[in-house]
Amino acid sequence: MPVYQAVVLAVVQAFGEFLPISSSAHLILTRWFFGWSELDPTMDLTFDVALHAGTLLAVLIYFFPTWINLIVAGFGGQPKMSASGAGFGNVDDVESGRDRMLLWWIVLGTVPGAIAGKLLDKYAELKFRENYLLIGSMLVIVGLLMWVAEKLGGQRRTITGINAIDAILIGAAQACALVPGVSRSGSTITAGLARGLNREAAARFSFLLLAPITAGAVLLKTHAVMKAGGLPPGMKQPFLIGISVSAVLGLAVIAFFLRFLRTHSLDLFVIYRVLLGIAVIVLALKHFHAG
Length: 291
Known about the structure:
This protein is mostly helical.
């Protein structure tokens, strides 16, 4: 894989993972659009998981004070860390210990995705990724659901008000993101809005919920790669560059998106998803009939 491809895909991953537009769909579509086929589908997927490791690092670093407070509060302690002096996003959601269950709601919300990942492993890895009509349809459908959820959800609740039902439903939405085009952040933010969370709260919980499920996927894929003899020759540099770029840029995208949501609606992303989805469907149908 040329280094420039690794950089482009890492940029796509950083934006696609945190903005509600589907990183998996954009990675697949970017390769399709440019005709990048140097790697076999299995190695493409392995590289995509590596890029997810980069955006996982971004979440762990950006929310570091929050993670410390979540763990301390979750095990009955008194959170001490404040992000105000650390250069990170605020951690008012846990720094006063008001919600000692938030850590466990994240754990609970991870369960549906873990089960779905186990049951749909092979389809998620290969079959779903090859179906451009499915990808286009999911871009449109979830975009419209996002619009409805934002308009009708009320947006009255903050992240401190999340409960077990919220965690299960948002976790189930995350499980649906195994289908490219759904978008992990898009589906979870939509579910959060539908449950009455405000935009920023829905996004913050979505980003925190990313960590355990992504960490599990990265560990499993790393084990499989090592078991198969490691990375092919010439792939170490693209992997390291891809992970680094997606991590650094991911930090900036998180900060931007959370600030954006304080004063802006999701309409721009809804329009983008619908237009892109329609374009993908049209191109896929043309390709089908031409074949």
